[in-house]
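tokens incoming
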């Protein structure tokens, strides 16, 4: 079994300082969080940008640039930029940040109902983002909110727009998407190509149980305040505390945690 890759998603688009003072908003806060999370055991950081003035989701290239440059200078983390659409759904708003050439970027291969909105990803948009990642040498993380998104990713690979082995992230426990259950996780894992790697991102209270199942099944985990702001019910978490918990629990069942360079080997990345 490969060592465990821990991805930290520290910011996302929704948590606010009013919800938790621990969510990093400014580039400086995100960079400092990355430093602490790497020290705690994370090897990948999933990057969203926020407007420093009001904390809203941002698609501004300059903010992504400042975050990425700071993380590159001060950490060895694998930078995974989000191409999500909460800060703007148009292709032009979502592709520009790829010019920063992160090692990885998220690629959601379908549309899904969020609790209060539709996360729309048209076939044309998905192909355009996949083509950009291919041309820039960026490895996509295929974000899977339902089973059909796995097949869409496989079809992109057959068209030559994604290079195997593929990497998937199963987002579980979000209202309107895949429920967080071991039966669903087993089905998702059995539906991807045998040479693919996979991560689980559990939303809210689903984060810890889904992470634990992934550890035992040979997958990888995503933690962080983007998905879950609590350590336990009623107790706010920090990003580094969530990372440290997975390092400890994985160690207790005999699975070592990957360094960033070891994660690059597992994910078939070249720095």
């Amino acid at each position: 079994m490969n060592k465990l890759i821990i991805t930290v998603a520290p910011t996302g688009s929704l948590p606010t300082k009013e919800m938790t003072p621990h969510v990093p908003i400014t580039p400086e806060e995100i960079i400092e969080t990355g430093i602490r999370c790497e020290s705690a055991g994370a090897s990948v950081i999933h990057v969203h940008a926020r407007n420093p003035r009001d904390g809203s989701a941002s698609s501004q290239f300059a903010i992504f640039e400042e975050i990425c440059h700071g993380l590159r200078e001060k950490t060895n983390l694998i930078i995974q930029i989000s191409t999500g659409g909460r800060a703007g759904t148009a292709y032009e708003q979502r592709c520009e940040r790829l010019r920063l050439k992160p090692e990885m970027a998220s690629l959601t291969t379908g549309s899904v109902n969020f609790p209060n909105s539709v996360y729309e990803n048209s076939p044309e948009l998905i192909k355009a983002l996949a083509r950009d990642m291919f041309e820039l040498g960026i490895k996509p993380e295929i974000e899977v909110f339902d089973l059909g998104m796995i097949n869409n990713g496989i079809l992109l690979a057959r068209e030559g727009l994604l290079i195997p082995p593929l990497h998937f992230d199963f987002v579980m426990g979000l209202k309107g998407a895949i429920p967080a259950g071991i039966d669903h996780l087993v089905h998702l894992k059995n539906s991807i190509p045998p040479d693919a790697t996979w991560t689980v991102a559990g939303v809210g209270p689903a984060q810890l149980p889904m992470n634990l199942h992934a550890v035992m099944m040979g997958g990888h985990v995503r933690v962080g305040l983007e998905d879950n702001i609590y350590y336990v019910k009623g107790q706010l978490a920090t990003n580094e505390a969530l990372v440290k918990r997975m390092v400890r629990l994985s160690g207790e069942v005999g699975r070592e945690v990957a360094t960033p360079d070891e994660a690059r080997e597992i994910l078939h990345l070249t720095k």
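note: Residues 27-40 form the longest helix (14 residues).
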